[in-house]
Design goal:
homodimer, alpha+beta, Pnp Oxidase, Chain A, Split barrel-like, 8-stranded antiparallel sheet, 3-stranded antiparallel sheet, elongated
């Protein structure tokens, strides 16, 4: 049973694709760091900004193109430090004339309100070329990636179906999850199991055993490419687990 | 009827006090800007951080104390750019030995999970001395403040009761709100009115008139100092509006 996890570059692409709000770090004329809230779109993973030239971050980018973007995945957890987040660091540039239509469309697709200001003469589109990526997946889970890895990675294709699949598994297939944890998760004494996350490569599972709570991961047989494959992949694991536990 | 609004410094103190998560901008060894997610507490309005010396932002602060923090107020609006947010810019320093206990307590009060790491030898507390403040209250509402103004401003004292008061006014006192908008909001032809925000100085009101939708503000007679004063202050406005409309 493969237990591959998404790479840092894949995690970063998935988090970047999950929202449209971020914080930008730029440099003032004095070289001071300046943190400011921005909305963004994505063009092949590269963040697209549209900011006023009159705003401090707009003036900063015009003066020095070095920029960094922090993006935080939505979380229900009361502890902010358990959230997944990324830093993308690189160089911002104005799109070329051939890029401009695609850049504009990418921004407006993610930020519909942009239609009210994107074409004002004092607003400028900026495209961030990512040189360096830092991913933090909560406590003790973190890794780095190069810009080239980020550029070619894909956001997780099953994300749109993940929450539904998790709810369905936990509500209707708790016995199958426990069997999967016993057969493939390394916890032979699993009493009950809860799926906590699901991605293209597999499931994260929290198991209750007589010895206490533990966390494990079970991979799918093959990497998934669409949310529609989640049902078959999890059903296959359940069948194999039933056979293995027999 | 006074129509004073909170100052930029007051808005900033209120937003800073409303959450415990922010984005920090620091400088790398190369002087590049680096945006990273952090949790924070407040000591007399000054942000308190507790970060690992091994983390990039921890190394950055140790190398150059210039720092900036972006804080975004929670919002239900689908458009991120309608949210209220601030940038605090200044210099981070390690607390003095006399400050340390208060700094630690301020952090743990806002970030309870900090008890698991705050005393690790590789974690350092940082206190941000704010030199410059930028407040953006949504589209077209923005202002700056000096660090000295920020230091002496107070977070809005009625915030803890604001949501409840707004819900109560809109559910049970819609007629009174319309009367207030007619008498003191400058819209004599108000048909209906909705309270959209409330603060120590007054109420923001959206009015429907035969001419269309408009936005107005009505101030309280005196500045409020506690949530418990909201009921009397709004009831007083309602009485005076009823008398004025008679």
């Amino acid at each position: 049973m493969q237990s591959v996890r998404p790479s840092a570059a894949e995690q970063a692409r998935t988090i970047a694709a999950s929202t449209n709000a971020a914080t930008l770090a730029t440099l003032t004329a004095d070289g001071d760091p300046w943190a400011s809230f921005v909305a963004y779109g994505l063009l092949d993973g590269r963040p697209v900004l549209c900011v006023s030239n009159l705003a401090e971050h707009g003036r900063n980018l015009a003066g020095d193109p070095r920029a960094s973007l922090s993006i935080v995945a939505a979380s229900d957890d009361a502890d902010p430090l358990s959230s997944s987040r990324i830093t993308l660091s690189g160089i911002a540039s104005e799109p070329s004339s051939t890029e401009r239509d695609a850049v504009r469309a990418a921004y407006l697709s993610a930020v519909p309100a942009g239609r009210f200001f994107a074409d004002f003469s004092d607003f400028t589109f900026w495209l961030l070329k990512v040189h360096r990526v830092r991913w933090v997946g909560g406590y003790g889970r973190m890794d780095s990636a190069a810009g080239a890895e980020y550029d070619v990675a894909a956001p997780d294709p099953v994300t749109p179906g993940a929450d539904g699949a998790i709810a369905h598994l936990n509500a209707d297939h708790a016995d199958a999850l426990a069997a999967i944890a016993r057969a493939f998760g390394g916890y032979l004494d699993t009493d009950t199991a809860v799926c906590t996350a699901i991605d293209r490569y597999g499931m994260d599972i929290r198991v209750n055993t007589p010895r206490g709570i533990a966390y494990t991961r079970v991979g799918f047989r093959e990497r998934l490419d669409a949310p529609g494959q989640l049902r078959a992949a999890t059903a296959e694991l359940a069948r194999e687990a039933a056979a293995a536990n027999r």
